[in-house]
Design a protein that fits this description.
Blueprint (H helix, E strand, L loop, with lengths): L1 E12 L2 E6 L4 E5 L2 H22 L13 H4 L6 E9 L6
Antiparallel strand pairs: 1-2, 1-4, 2-3
């Protein structure tokens, strides 16, 4: 089983929290930090699973000009790492 490690970014926008995985260009939101984080993890896993099933590339990095790490001050961002286990099964 392969393990991939990605970066999660969280920040407050208006009344909600936004979340982004810049390596995958997958985003989500939530009413709380915890909800935004969980929604991002779910979105990232669905994205990777669908990419593998369809034979498409899973990595689609966010352009530097749109990366929140280059837009917001560091104290406005919460940054975390997360891992995704990927099991590959072969069928004939």
């Amino acid at each position: 089983m392969d393990m991939f490690v990605f970066t999660g970014l969280l920040w407050k926008e208006d009344d909600e929290y936004s979340a982004l995985c810049p390596e995958l260009d997958v985003a989500s939101q939530g009413k709380t930090l915890a909800e935004a984080r969980e929604n991002l993890l779910e979105a990232a896993s669905i994205h990777i699973e669908g990419s593998f099933e369809d034979g498409l590339p899973y990595a689609r990095p966010v352009p530097s000009s749109e990366d929140p790490r280059n837009v917001f001050p560091s104290e406005a961002l919460k940054i975390f790492k997360f891992k995704v286990n990927v099991a590959v099964k072969v069928y004939a």
